[in-house]
Design a protein that fits this description.
By secondary structure, the protein is an alpha+beta fold. The chain has one domain: Nuclear Transport Factor 2, Chain: A. It has helices at about 5-15, 35-55, 60-65, 80-85, and strands spanning about 65-70, 80, 95-105, 110-120, 125-140, 140-154. It is globular and about 50 Å long.
Amino acid sequence: MTFCNLGEKLNSSSQSGPANQAPPANAAPLKAPDRESVKNELVRLINDIAQASVDGDIVTLTKVTTDDFEQTDVEGKVQNKNEALAEVKKEKSIRSWSITQTELTTLTDDTAVMKYLLSLTLKNGRSGKARVTETFVKEDGDWLLKSSHQTMVK
């Protein structure tokens, strides 16, 4: 899902030039999440999602996304979870990919927003980059991807 249409865009460009509950009154105060450890956890998750996308692994992608997941791809196409998963296939045209410039912009106890740069190199030698902003929510102790927005970098 992370690579949805980015590889295709590169190839085609070669053709054409539960509700929150208050803690009990006697509960210890909640410790604020550690930004660096959450960032590292989310970067690992982002890499896992990217690898699952390349591998066409919809089982993993289903598990790490919320039921109401929404994606806006590099061409501006908006898809819900089922629509995005329906387009996942093993990526045979991608030689390599990398995720850099990771930044945890927002963090609360149960939400996080990450921004990063996704770079792809295709087997035909073409390459491209996309700026990605993703929102994660914590459900049952696990971070899940809720939304993803990708913009091509020229």
